[in-house]
């Protein structure tokens, strides 16, 4: 299983005019361990072109490229995985298409979602949202740290928390039971994405060393 401890989720709307590839390059230099490409507004061709550029950037680093929602894009570019929400393709259908070589992550908004994801063969669970966040407006109510702990007690899969996570609360999320934290604006909107990633990397490492 790849290292999911510092999981970057891209969002071009928050990039302050910078290209996704440039931000990912800086974030990788700062220490991100996984990159999820999330595109809600561009065309399929644009998505594929961008995904190929990011895949090329990550080649040889050991950092997996995960594609959000779009299994077709993940297959087209040979991504390492796909991340699916509760209204996206079922795990069983996705697994038939990708086989065992591609990671399948599932967003869980409650304990039942996480338990079902584990039973159906997901590789990891994204707990969403841990805290309220302005970067996604279609999410369920925030689960909070207690919600993270309940999901941790219910499943053995790797857990990645997402939603309103940054330097000020990443430690708490790890200590509540997450194996990693997924961040969007904390890196994408940072004046210096490399420095922001490095700061989060240090915070996460310390939280794991001193649970």
Automatic annotation (TrEMBL):
Listed Gene3D superfamilies: Aldolase class I (3.20.20.70)
Q: What residues does 2-[(2R,5Z)-2-carboxy-4-methylthiazol-5(2H)-ylidene]ethyl phosphate bind to?
A: 133-135, 164, 184-185
- Taking every annotated instance into account, which residue ranges of this chain make up the domain Thiamine phosphate synthase/TenI? 6-187
Please give the GO cellular component terms listed in this UniProt entry: cytoplasm
**What Enzyme Commission number(s) appear in the record?**
2.5.1.3
User: What's a Gene Ontology MF term here?
Assistant: magnesium ion binding
Q: Which cofactor does it need?
A: Mg(2+)
**Catalytic activity as recorded in UniProt:** 2-(2-carboxy-4-methylthiazol-5-yl)ethyl phosphate + 4-amino-2-methyl-5-(diphosphooxymethyl)pyrimidine + 2 H(+) = thiamine phosphate + CO2 + diphosphate; 2-[(2R,5Z)-2-carboxy-4-methylthiazol-5(2H)-ylidene]ethyl phosphate + 4-amino-2-methyl-5-(diphosphooxymethyl)pyrimidine + 2 H(+) = thiamine phosphate + CO2 + diphosphate; 4-methyl-5-(2-phosphooxyethyl)-thiazole + 4-amino-2-methyl-5-(diphosphooxymethyl)pyrimidine + H(+) = thiamine phosphate + diphosphate
Biological process, per Gene Ontology: thiamine biosynthetic process; thiamine diphosphate biosynthetic process
Q: How is the cofactor bound?
A: Binds 1 Mg(2+) ion per subunit.
Q: Which residues bind 4-amino-2-methyl-5-(diphosphooxymethyl)pyrimidine?
A: 36-40, 68, 107, 136
Q: What does this protein do?
A: Condenses 4-methyl-5-(beta-hydroxyethyl)thiazole monophosphate (THZ-P) and 2-methyl-4-amino-5-hydroxymethyl pyrimidine pyrophosphate (HMP-PP) to form thiamine monophosphate (TMP).
Question: Which HAMAP family does the annotation name?
Answer: TMP_synthase
Q: What is this protein called?
A: Thiamine-phosphate synthase
Source organism of the structure: Desulfomicrobium baculatum (strain DSM 4028 / VKM B-1378 / X)
């Amino acid at each position: 299983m790849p290292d999911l401890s510092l999981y970057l989720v891209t969002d071009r709307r928050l990039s302050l005019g910078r290209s996704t590839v440039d931000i990912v390059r800086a974030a990788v230099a700062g220490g991100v361990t996984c990159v999820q490409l999330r595109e809600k507004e561009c065309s399929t061709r644009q998505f594929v072109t961008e995904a190929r550029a990011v895949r090329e950037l990550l080649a040889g680093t050991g950092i997996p490229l995960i594609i959000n929602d779009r299994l077709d894009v993940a297959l087209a570019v040979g991504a390492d995985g796909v991340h699916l929400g509760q209204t996206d393709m079922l795990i069983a259908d996705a697994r038939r298409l990708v086989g065992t070589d591609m990671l399948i992550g599932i967003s869980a908004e409650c304990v039942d979602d996480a338990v079902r994801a584990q039973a159906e063969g997901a590789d990891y669970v994204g707990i969403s949202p841990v805290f309220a966040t302005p970067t996604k407006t279609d999410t369920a109510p925030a689960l909070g740290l207690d919600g993270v702990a309940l999901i941790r007690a219910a499943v053995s899969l790797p857990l990645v928390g997402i939603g309103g996570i940054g330097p000020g609360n990443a430690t708490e999320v790890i200590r509540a039971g997450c194996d990693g934290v997924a961040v969007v604006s904390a890196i994408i909107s940072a004046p210096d994405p490399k420095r922001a990633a490095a700061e989060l990397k240090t915070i996460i490492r310390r939280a794991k060393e001193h649970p």
